[in-house]
């Protein structure tokens, strides 16, 4: 039986597109909230120049900050004050199964795709699930073959 090649991140970006919603670190949280709602996304790449990754701000970051800061005060805080600065990234050649494991292990929902220091896309856990569920659905039929090869 022919083995399927592992899916790579570029294949998700090919179907999804490489558009990335970004926000400047100095923008206020209210602007980030508005951009999240406008774009219908769960995270924004924080970037001063729209290319390099300074951080990431997600709905989760905002909710956690709401627990610590008065909501009215939070809305005027700069994004840089609540963004995640240690951003996990991947590249387009990475295997989706490895990305899925990383996302699961670190409990993160959004991973920017980076190449040569510039953001090239962003992958959400929803993107991963959308592309892997059809593959997962056929796995039971392939299980005997995997066991034989084991």
Question: What this model shows, in words?
Answer:
The chain is α+β, with helices and mostly antiparallel strands and 150 residues long. It contains six helices and five strands; from the N terminus they run αβαββαααββα. The strands form two sheets. A three-stranded mixed beta sheet has the order 1-2-3. The chain has a two-stranded antiparallel sheet with strand order 4-5. The longest helix is centred in the last third of the chain and has 25 residues, at 125-149. The protein is globular. The mean pLDDT is 88.
Can you describe this structure in just a few lines?
This protein is of the alpha+beta class and 150 residues long. Helix content is 47%, strand content 15%. It contains 6 helices and 5 strands, in the order H-E-H-E-E-H-H-H-E-E-H.
User: What's the story with the biggest beta sheet?
Assistant: 3 strands, mixed
Coarse morphology: globular
Assigned CATH class: Alpha Beta
The helix-strand sequence is HEHEEHHHEEH
Spatial ordering of strands, largest sheet: 1-2-3
**Helix share bin:** 40-55%
Name given to the CATH architecture: Roll
Give the termini distance in whole angstroms. 14 Å
Poorly predicted runs of 5 or more residues: none
Rounded Rg: 18 Å
Strand share of the residues? 15-25%
Question: What's the domain count?
Answer: 1
Topology diagram in text:
Blueprint: H1 9-16, E1 22-23, H2 29-39, E2 43-46, E3 55-58, H3 59-68, H4 71-76, H5 96-106, E4 110-115, E5 118-124, H6 125-149
Parallel strand pairs: 1-2
Antiparallel strand pairs: 2-3, 4-5
């Amino acid at each position: 039986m022919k083995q399927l090649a592992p899916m790579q991140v570029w294949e998700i970006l090919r179907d999804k597109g490489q558009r990335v919603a970004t926000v400047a670190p100095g923008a206020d949280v209210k602007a980030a909230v508005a951009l999240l709602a406008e774009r219908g996304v769960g995270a924004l790449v924080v970037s001063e120049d729209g290319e390099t990754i300074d951080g990431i701000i997600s709905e989760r970051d905002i909710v956690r900050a709401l627990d610590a800061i008065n909501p009215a005060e939070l809305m005027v805080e700069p994004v840089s004050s609540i963004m995640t600065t240690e951003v996990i990234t991947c590249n387009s050649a990475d295997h989706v199964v490895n990305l899925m494991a990383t996302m699961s292990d670190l409990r993160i929902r959004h991973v920017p795709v980076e190449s040569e220091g510039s953001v090239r896309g962003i992958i959400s856990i929803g993107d991963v699930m959308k592309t892997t569920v059809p593959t997962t659905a056929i796995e039971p039929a392939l299980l005997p073959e995997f066991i034989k090869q084991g």
